[in-house]
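hiii so um. not sure if this is the right channel but i have a protein structure encoded as tokens and i wanna go backwards to a sequence. like what aa goes where. can anyone help
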């Protein structure tokens, strides 16, 4: 699994307006229904009202590549331009060797 954290930043509440339009237009739901999508959720950092965090997880790189080559990306790009957003991206690949029980004593 590959998880991509995308921080969208803007001014005048534009990052939140972008996330709302993605949800209200059904675009986010269409992405969630794409083959290989595991998670597509927006979050709002408490200490930065001008940033929105998107957590976007995919089965593998092939699923991401198909998503990136789909017409959906034109919609997303147009909305990013509309709201004049800047992005910071973090990428994480799951650790197949991870042993969940090692952390279980820290999880309530």
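sure thing!! here u go:
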């Amino acid at each position: 699994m590959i998880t991509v954290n995308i921080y969208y930043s803007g001014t005048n509440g534009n990052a939140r307006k972008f996330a709302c339009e993605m949800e209200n237009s059904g675009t986010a739901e269409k992405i969630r229904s794409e083959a290989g999508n595991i998670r597509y959720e927006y979050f709002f950092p408490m200490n930065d009202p001008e940033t929105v965090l998107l957590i976007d997880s995919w089965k593998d790189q092939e699923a991401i590549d198909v998503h990136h080559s789909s017409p959906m990306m034109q919609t997303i790009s147009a909305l990013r331009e509309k709201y004049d957003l800047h992005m910071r991206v973090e990428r994480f690949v799951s650790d197949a060797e991870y042993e969940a029980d090692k952390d279980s004593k820290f999880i309530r």
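oh and The two ends are 24 Å apart (CA to CA).
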